[in-house]
Amino acid sequence: MNNKPLDFPFLRSKVVTTVISAKTSVALDSKLTAIQNRLFERAHVEPMELKFLGIALGKQGIVGDAIYANPSMMPFPIQRCEYLKSLSNRQIAILTACFFANFYKTVANSESQALVSNMAAAEKSFEPYSDEYMILHQETSEEMDHIWTFRSVYNMVARETRSEEPFEAPGFFLGMVGSIPQDDYNSVDTQFRLSEECSHILELLHKPEGLQILLDEMKKKGRGFRYRTQHFLIGDAMRLLPAEDVQSLGLGGLWLLTRFAANVELKQGESYLFVDPEKFNYEPLAYNINQGHLHDEARHYTTSFDIGLTLYQAARPEAQAFIRELMRMTMEDYIKGQFLVFPEMLEAYSKGCLTIPFYFCKQTLEMAMSHQEFSDKLNNIDDLFSSWAQMEWPKKLPPFDAGLLTQKRWRYISQQYERIRQAIGIEYDVASLGNLLHRYKDILKQENLTEAFILA
């Protein structure tokens, strides 16, 4: 399809209407608004920006053998691979620093989308500068701080490892979700263009049966088109359409519920990056960046679910059905990437499919091996992957080390996805998820995590 920029007279008139006409607002529970604003004020009684930590870590560099993440959080067979077992404490520190930098690079690029979508949802759903509006406004301010900090850390690690990999990368909302075909990853475009494709989507949004037609196209044209369309709907489409259209289509709700799924993805990883601090020599600045970000995101997480659900409920019925189906597919994509064990990720990679944990694995290894400290440990990464694929892998997750962390992460994802699934009435596609749905359901039944988890 030709993606040259186009001019849309009907769209220009819509924008003018938005400016000059009175705008209706979506009513939030006053208790929710009061709580969120009170939590924000309490959090900022004392300065709590992360930038000063990013500046300090950027100047300090990777020093000594303090680690930047729990090694069991990295998707490597650290206890089984002779190459990894032979790494020195210093080399493990560098490896974890590279993992930390790449993890938060993806987070930062995802938060860049939040700058656009938060404010578009606020402007089209609430009265300007009202308490409801300011919830998303203040969160946007915090995201800017996060992005700046994570970029500082990444630039430091890239400088020390002599990596030329840029900071810009696809985030969660451009399709870095679960398990992404390599061709889709290669074709992701991070630059927005008002193309014929976007014009077609906008035209469908104004047709009586347009949402169903669009949904059918999103399923027929594949994952790449689906995420391009969803990315447009939760961002620039909201900015281009009048407030009444955004509200009736539930686009603010689609954004925040999609953000909720991304919040779950973030938290299941971030919460365990520095687990058991009494047992490990964690780098203090990296640890405090992680803890400060967790603190902010706990409030953002509540906003995503509670306000997202309210905006979804304010949409017309056919828009709710559209959002339900998009959320089902998005959540299933996350499940397909996370409810895998490492040999399954290796197999997917061999077939041209990149799971997000494996993406971090590959980026981390490539960056670390560029560091001068690895001059005696140079290795072909694909050869490493091949050797790992030939290992014998157990069909269970043990209740310790990486196995226990995986159980905790899976259970957290399942518990949080059940909240949204039950709230808006989603039914998973059994054929699409297969044995992964069994794992999802089995981990929900686990009352404690003191026993090995048998993989379905």
How is the secondary structure organized here?
Elements: H1 9-20, H2 30-43, H3 51-60, H4 82-85, H5 89-125, H6 131-161, E1 179-181, H7 182-187, H8 196-205, H9 210-220, H10 223-233, H11 236-240, H12 243-249, H13 251-270, H14 284-313, H15 317-338, H16 342-350, E2 353-355, H17 356-368, H18 381-389, E3 396-397, H19 401-424, H20 430-433, H21 435-445, E4 453-454
Antiparallel strand pairs: 1-2, 3-4
Question: How would you sum up this structure, described in words?
Answer:
The chain has a two-stranded antiparallel ribbon. Helix 5 (89-125) runs antiparallel to helix 6 (131-161) and helix 13 (251-270) packs parallel to helix 15. Helices cover 66% and strands 2% of the residues. The protein has helices at residues 9-20, 30-43, 51-60, 82-85, 89-125, 131-161, 182-187, 196-205, 210-220, 223-233, 236-240, 243-249, 251-270, 284-313, 317-338, 342-350, 356-368, 381-389, 401-424, 430-433, 435-445; strands spanning 179-181, 353-355, 396-397, 453-454. The chain is mostly helical.
Question: Could you give a short description of this structure?
Answer:
With 456 residues, this protein is mostly helical. Helix content is 66%, strand content 2%.
List keywords for this structure.
single chain; 456 residues; mainly alpha; two-stranded antiparallel ribbon; 21 helices; 4 strands; 66% helix; 2% strand; globular
Uncertain ranges = 1-6, 8-22
Walk across the major sheet and give the strand order: 1-2
H/E series: HHHHHHEHHHHHHHHHHEHHEHHHE
DSSP helix fraction: 55-70%
Q: What structural class should be given to the helix and strand makeup?
A: mainly alpha
Shape: globular
